[in-house]
Amino acid sequence: MKLYHAPGACSTASRIVLEEAGIAFETVEVNVRDKTLADGTSFLAINPKGQVPALVLGNGEVLTEGAVIIQYIADQAPESGLLPPPGNLERYRVLEWTNYIATELHKTFSPLMRPNTPPEFAAITKAALLPRVFGVLNDRLAASDYLAGATFSIADAYAFVILGWTKRQEIDLFPWPNIQAYLTRISDRPSVKAAL
What we know:
The chain has about 200 residues and is an alpha+beta fold. Helices cover about 50% and strands about 10% of the residues. The protein folds into 2 domains: about 1-80, Glutaredoxin (3-Layer(aba) Sandwich); about 90-190, Glutathione S-transferase Yfyf (Class Pi), Chain A, domain 2, CATH 1.20.1050. It is built from 8 helices and 5 strands; from the N terminus they run E-H-E-E-E-E-H-H-H-H-H-H-H. The mean pLDDT is about 95. GO terms for molecular function: glutathione transferase activity. It holds the Pfam family GST_C.
C-alpha cells in the first residue's frame, strides 16, 4: 500500500492505523497547498479531490476519505482489534465515534486551518463550537480509557490527530482533563511514535 499524506494533517491517523495493523506501506508526502508531490507532479492525478489521505491499494485502485481508509486498513488486519467484526455492536460503537470525530471535531476544526476564515468566525469556533465537542469527548472519556470502550480503536487514532491541532491553534485543554490524559495515553503508543 502507498499512503499519500501531509505531516500533521488528518492523514496521520491513517499512518497510525497502518502501524497498529502491522501492514507494510510506503508514504508519499503531499504539498496540500499547491497539490503537488516532491517531484513536482500533480497530486490531483492521484486524488482529484485534492485532499489527503489517499491510499493506493495493491491492485492500483485509490481509496480516499480518511474515515473510510482507516476502516479499510483495520479490516485488512482483523487480528489487530482496531475494528470489531461486522455484525458486532462493538463495531458500530467504534464507527459511531469515528463518524463523530469526522463530522463534529474534524469539520469544526477545518475553518481554523484556512487562511481566509474571518477572524470573527475563528473566535466563535474556539470559544463556543469546539468547546461543545470537547465537552462530549471529555464526558465520554470519564467512562472509559478510549472512545469506544476499553481498547484502542481507529476512532482513537483519528481523534488523537485532530485533538492534536489544539496546540497549533493555541487552544488550552485545561478545562477537559480527561482529554488531556487521553492524549498522553495515546502518545505513548509505539504506533503513534512511529507515525509521528
